[in-house]
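Handout for the seminar on molecular recognition.
Each group receives one record of this type.
Step one: identify the two inputs.
Step two: read the structure output and locate the region that could contact S-adenosylmethionine.
Step three: write two sentences on what you found, then compare them with the reference statements printed after the record.
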Amino acid sequence: MGTDAARYGEVFAPVYDEWYADLDDADFIDYIAACRRGDESLRVLELGVGTGRLAESFVTARGHGRDDYVGIDSSISMLERLTHREPSISITAVHGDMAVVLPDGPFDVVFCGYNTIFNLPDDAALAMCLQEVARVLADGGEFFVDAAIPFGHEEADSNTTNSGPLAVTRGRHTVLSSSAHDERSQTVSGEFVHFASPTDVRRYPWSIRYWTAEQFDVIALRNGLTCVERVADGNGTPWAPHISRHISRFRVAT
Ligand SMILES: C[S@@+](CC[C@H](N)C(=O)[O-])C[C@H]1O[C@@H](n2cnc3c(N)ncnc32)[C@H](O)[C@@H]1O
């Protein structure tokens, strides 16, 4: 396993559930559940399952025991927390890089939650991942992505926008957050710093490489997937290019 693929999870696993318990992306799961409402049981694969935050929402939305649920993640520390999750959920956890090889399936639903796909470092990794998704989808299977693209800020002499350090609340703590957005390379990197005590300073670096919805569609199509629907949120609000977040639904291209 490349250390790069595991880095985010290894850094954030100790704080992930506390810091991100209140993320407001449950509508993504509701959207998938609504799209597949007619299916009695589903074979599901989540990319970047982490500690199981979305897996728990999915199982709750669909009803326990209805589906076979597989989650892949590159971080052992995230998967350890998934294994000990309370309440426990029935899930097959696979340690692996979603840009190398996916469990064989076939799967009726493959999904990747809020910006997890932007953990992939470059076009080649995204292409490999989407090719694998196309390979493991069942007949009639669908791939769902939830992603939010940071928009640039107009600056005359720079392609980079720095933000922070800002004091933000994460779980029970106040931490400092800073980030730099480079529009040319379509990357955002940042860091949270938590001063747990004068002698205990904890750093949580992160970075994403993002693609616009249009760029994403081009790479998807080249790798066997076609976008069949795009909405701005799980309520079905119509999406437009100026809207940062998109939930996109893909099928194997014919
Ligand atoms: C933002 S967390 C999302 C976790 C969970 N899906 C959720 O929504 O709470 C991103 C997860 O993707 C995993 N990840 C990052 N790159 C990956 C890769 N190349 N292959 C598999 N998992 C990856 C990280 O380890 C982390 O657990």
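Reference statements: The domain at 3-149+211-252 is CATH 3.40.50.150 (Rossmann fold). The first helix runs from residue 3 to 12.
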